[in-house]
């Protein structure tokens, strides 16, 4: 019998935690034939990503995964051979007691946040003894051979490439969302936290020589969008100003969001899950990193930019840095965006090269399975 896996997820507020764990659970079940239980404390958030799910069910099967509601009233259940606590979440006390009572130890992994910082390589795979006699092991996703890799389904890049060369499928998908861009328009997706530089960027898009069709899935950035337009926009609304067409989209499933990214010429994303999916889309992109106190997130941002810009010319690298820093550090986004335009072909080629390089590494799910085998 294949080993059983338990994944615990505490939903915070931005879908990144449940987004990552839901993708991981599906891949472990479908590609590695594992019995996976995904314990989620907020099924309402889960149903935003998996519309077929029942937000009231204590247990349900979704896409091969045993999804359980993680409630304060913990049910008696057997522990798994592999236990993953995502992003430092604290496992239920009764479950920890059951882990400590096992005749044969389970592998308890602490799946950490994705980061390109130098110290990650040194901490990946390190054990951490716990007061109850158990120990957990730090497992870091990452971009180098000394980390756990990135979430990537086995055929993801091939599916993306096939999609991007199939104009019929692309147009049919956009039509399903009621998106009908002009033939010459550049298609941009925007998924972000609140950002004071949005108005600056929109002003620049209005004046662009090439028209833009901006797709905004409903989310936190809508408040800034409403302030710029001077009205409350709703899902389905389309507005035009100068060379900019703006359209508000509904919050979509993970599969649909992937395809939206594949359709677009440029993707502005946020957090961790969409951060990784934009890289697999192989198009120029922009990351809005999760904001931390005292701007602690800037160090994480700069660490990624240090490795991502490798291979770019000095001019293209500086233009890329200027846009990412403007978006994340409240600098002049309009000026940075205009300076980026001459480097567009270079950034397109670089995004594809980066995707190929990362796809040559083991994916996160495979790395986790191999880590367990080695541990045995």
From TrEMBL:
Catalytic activity: dTDP-beta-L-rhamnose + L-arginyl-[protein] = N(omega)-(alpha-L-rhamnosyl)-L-arginyl-[protein] + dTDP + H(+)
Keywords carried by this UniProt record: Elongation factor, Glycosyltransferase, Protein biosynthesis, Transferase
GO MF, one annotated term: translation elongation factor activity
Keyword Cell inner membrane: no
Keyword Protein biosynthesis (UniProt): yes
Source organism superkingdom: Bacteria
Family matches, as Pfam families: EarP (PF10093)
Family: Belongs to the glycosyltransferase 104 family.
Function: Protein-arginine rhamnosyltransferase that catalyzes the transfer of a single rhamnose to elongation factor P (EF-P) on 'Lys-32', a modification required for EF-P-dependent rescue of polyproline stalled ribosomes.
NCBIfam families noted in UniProt: efp_Arg_rhamno
Record-given protein name: Protein-arginine rhamnosyltransferase
